[in-house]
Amino acid sequence: MTRQSRQTVSPARAAAVRLFSVAALAAAGLVAPAAAASAASGAPSAVVLPAANFVSPHGPYSTTSDQCASCHRAHTTKSSALLVDSAPQSKLCFSCHNGLGSTLNVATQYSNPDLPPNDPTTASYYTHDATKPTVHILASSDEFGGVTNRHTECSDCHDPHEGSMVLSTSSPDGTPWTPAGPNTGTSGLAVTNGSGTQAYTFLDGTKQPITAEYQLCLKCHSGYTKLLPKDPAHPSRDSLDAGAEFNPTGTSFHPVEAAGTNASPKMALSLSGASPYKLWNLTTSSTVRCTNCHANGLATGATPAAGDDLAPHASTNRGILLRNYRDRGLKPNGEVYADADFALCYLCHTNEPFATSSTTATNFGGHFKHLNQIATTGSGGLSIDTIGDGQGNAICSECHFRTHSTATTTDQYRGLVAFAPDVEAVNGVLSWTSPGAGSGDTCTLKCHGKTHNALSYP
Ligand code: HEC
Ligand code: HEC
Ligand code: HEC
Ligand code: HEC
Ligand code: HEC
Ligand code: HEC
Ligand code: HEC
């Protein structure tokens, strides 16, 4: 969904927004009954609400009407912060964000019938679940520092007293993307990166506003808080420290906090080339938003710009991904290469080196061969987490185990190269030696039943 700032909406849309809002606000006693009556009559021209009078329940607030009452009650309160509705907060928010009180329908994003059933053990792969009761107090208080208190109420990512539909922006010079209007005023973390170390400062959102989108995400996905315990049987499911992963002093990373380390001409071609899923043409000095990869799944034909409204509420793609990415189930013998398996990558990268034998846009001449040409070599199983598994064509994550970066992997190679647990050592050695992009590389490892012993490739 592409959204505009409230200040720049078309007159027709502005009228529609007001029509819905007037009804909701009237129900909450926020606008005069006359305006509400004309809104209810269904005649948009009768809604005499000059732009200056448009009252969003999220402010700016006037001193004459009790705009606070749509959400707060002093004496009949049902939950913390004197709110009118009982927990979870989403009940209060959905009373308007259901397509009636606001055009921004968030309730349907959570009730999408294509989402997997709300199984508590897997729901978090597909949603930031804001619909179950939590131990939430207030987002402006430091609720996550050093403790296991992982939850997501709406206000953990949105300040209900502030906000706009201003888009996220970044200059093309490696500065990170700003928080989008809907996340204005929310708390987060400022990060000071040392060489392989991170120090965090809590920002309460109002007195100390966040200045980059990732600062919101790191509040709950970095070593600042207590992350989920690791699962020794399934390293591919571990929730790792995104603060460490995106630290720009690392060898190789997706460029969220600063531009990346691979400025090679082939990298530039990988980013500028075409693909069936292509949305964004970036350069080697670009940064990307967490929400360029993690957001509600895209409808066919949708073409948001990189800074557009991309909400990480709920996606039918595991990992709350904008597009599908197959990274855990290996391919059985005979399953052919398909662009759709790696659609997420092709939002930004060309599929050329993988779908065709061309090496114009890659420093690794073996991409096509591994992704597309392994007929039948292995006989192992199909789990990326099991040593010795692998039968047919390879998937990206066997060589690029972590999409975020190599900072938390055993081998910290450049090129985002880190081998998955299914890849075996040969005589105790598992290595990739690479003097420089695309020159003199050798591999020592066993994969899909095939041994490479200091094998060099063009
Ligand atoms: C759209 C609903 C909504 C409206 C309108 C609203 N509030 Fe709130 N308010 C909330 C929610 C939700 C919280 C809890 C925030 C959290 O969980 O961090 C809250 C929290 C507060 C708090 C606790 C301190 C804090 O950290 O935010 C105060 C004080 C407050 N509101 C005052 C007001 C006043 C005064 C108004 C009117 C000028 C107002 N609110 C209007 C939803 C609203
Ligand atoms: C009384 C109705 C009402 C309630 C309750 C409400 N909202 Fe809204 N919200 C609106 C309206 C109206 C807009 C203006 C945008 C539009 O409809 O086009 C809006 C806009 C927003 C936006 C977009 C940014 C902005 O400020 O324009 C966010 C984010 C948002 N609301 C979050 C929340 C959250 C979180 C809650 C619950 C704590 C909540 N809202 C409760 C009516 C409501
Ligand atoms: C207030 C805390 C909080 C904030 C802020 C937050 N998240 Fe989350 N996120 C969670 C929790 C809790 C889960 C459930 C899984 C877990 O406990 O790690 C989750 C799950 C996820 C998942 C799916 C995890 C999986 O295993 O597949 C992704 C991806 C994600 N968040 C990305 C983001 C991004 C991107 C942002 C910033 C826009 C963000 N989160 C902001 C708390 C948060
Ligand atoms: C280039 C795309 C991309 C970007 C940018 C990105 N991620 Fe991810 N992220 C992924 C993929 C792919 C996965 C693996 C999904 C899966 O298999 O569950 C993932 C997994 C996750 C998970 C699940 C747990 C884990 O550690 O694997 C969380 C949480 C997460 N990302 C948060 C973030 C945050 C926070 C940011 C920004 C600071 C971010 N991501 C930026 C692609 C991306
Ligand atoms: C983990 C953080 C997170 C949680 C939890 C969350 N949101 Fe959002 N929300 C975002 C981000 C990020 C955006 C996208 C901002 C952008 O790019 O414009 C967004 C966008 C929105 C918008 C703008 C319209 C849209 O749908 O994209 C509304 C309204 C909104 N959220 C309301 C809510 C409500 C209501 C809840 C609780 C049911 C909620 N959000 C929970 C992070 C979150
Ligand atoms: C068999 C291992 C292997 C697999 C599988 C693999 N890659 Fe790579 N990839 C590499 C190596 C090695 C490099 C580093 C090349 C260099 O710089 O010398 C690389 C580099 C890259 C680069 C950086 C541009 C460049 O060539 O320097 C991109 C982008 C990339 N891979 C994307 C992918 C995607 C997308 C997939 C899945 C569709 C994938 N890779 C699958 C081994 C692999
Ligand atoms: C939102 C855009 C975006 C998406 C989606 C994306 N990438 Fe990238 N990727 C980039 C950018 C920008 C760079 C350049 C970083 C640099 O110059 O160091 C990059 C670099 C890389 C590199 C080389 C890193 C290095 O240090 O040499 C690899 C490998 C890679 N991406 C693989 C993937 C894979 C696999 C996926 C899908 C899971 C993916 N990318 C999805 C934007 C993206």
Describe the structure.
This protein is α+β, with helices and mostly antiparallel strands and 458 residues long. 16% of the residues lie in helices and 6% in strands. The protein has helices at residues 11-27, 33-40, 90-94, 107-110, 123-126, 213-221, 242-245, 265-272, 290-293, 352-355, 367-372; strands at 188-193, 198-203, 431-433, 442-447, 450-456. Strands 3-4-5 form a three-stranded antiparallel sheet, with no helix packed on it. The chain has a two-stranded antiparallel sheet with strand order 1-2. Helix 1 (11-27) packs across helix 2 (33-40). One heme C is lined by residues 125, 214, 217, 221, 239-240, 242, 246, 254, 256, 288, 290, 292-294, 318-319, 325, 327, 403-404.
**Order of strands across the main sheet:** 3-4-5
* Helix/strand/pairing category: alpha+beta
Q: Which whole number gives the mean pLDDT?
A: 86
Note the run of SSEs as H and E: HHHHHEEHHHHHHEEE
Roughly what fraction of the amino acids lie in strands?
A: 5-15%
The helix count comes to 11
List keywords for this structure.
alpha+beta; three-stranded antiparallel sheet; disordered N terminus; binds heme C
Quick synopsis:
This protein is of the alpha+beta class. It contains eleven helices and five strands, in the order H-H-H-H-H-E-E-H-H-H-H-H-H-E-E-E.
